[in-house]
Amino acid sequence: MRRIWQRDFWQRGDEDHVSAGEAAAAAARPHRPVAEADRHAAAFFDVDNTMMRGASIYYFARGLAARKLFTLRDLATFALGQAAFRVRGTENAEHISTAREAALAFVAGQKVSDIVRLSEEIYDEVMADRIWSGTRSLALQHLDAGQQVWLVTATPVEVARTIAHRLGLTGALGTVAETEAGVYTGRLVGNLLHGNAKAEAIRALAQREGLDLSRCSAYSDSVNDLPMLSAVGHPHAVNPDPALRAHAKELGWPVHDFRTGRKVTMVALPAAAGMGALAGGVAAGIALRNHYRSS
């Protein structure tokens, strides 16, 4: 029964996710020179609770709140919503669709340069201290071996690129919003980069970069990333949720747990990555809209 469930989980919704993966791969551009020593191998890292403690988009919202672009009440509401989805560990298609449309409506008309500038400032202020040193060390080992290292996340690609750049990684694959002349149109290119879309993204990137996925590695904390983990020859569980821990144990995958004490309780809950990215998109959109209305 478990393997049947896994097959259905990996394959459902493929038509919705293929364009998201292709869009993410097409938007991926290296921040550092591509490795020469081992050009056919790469490592792919999830971000939230894998590379970073907690949700990157939540910290982005916190940074907006500190700039008074986002109210503390809005931040509290966002945090409660995050907690609810983490406890449920499920993503409701209707909720995803509604939140996606709201986020895109809010961000429409905003400048890409504003999001990039804010993401750089907020990473340095709020996110940098929340990087798991153990996970970063794993990433650096791949870089030292001459391999590319990419972040793969549902977080907007502008934020994901900032994280990758600050960590000295090759680049990032993230959710891509359509832009024209440096301004968001209010539409996505493809869909959210989560679930099956992450696997599609790394396949598309592998084809472009000449990578052999059987020689590649992937790291994640969530059972929702089984499609990506199963697409490579060397999957790893990092700070895993219970379902992923059990799966990794059954298949003999390496498990890396950098949490201690209270942190295990806090971050081991199943994460709804798609909903987190959407809620964060709404947060950013509201903040920027309010900023421009008051300026």
TrEMBL record:
InterPro entries: HAD-like_SerB (IPR050582), HAD-like_sf (IPR036412), HAD_hydro_SerB1 (IPR006385), HAD_sf (IPR023214). Gene3D superfamilies: HAD superfamily/HAD-like, SG protein - dephosphorylation function. It comes from the Bacteria. Keywords: Hydrolase, Magnesium, Membrane, Metal-binding, Transmembrane, Transmembrane helix. One of its GO terms (molecular function) is metal ion binding. Belongs to the HAD-like hydrolase superfamily. SerB family. This is HAD-IB family hydrolase. It comes from Actinomadura logoneensis. The lineage of its organism: Bacteria, Bacillati, Actinomycetota, Actinomycetes, Streptosporangiales.
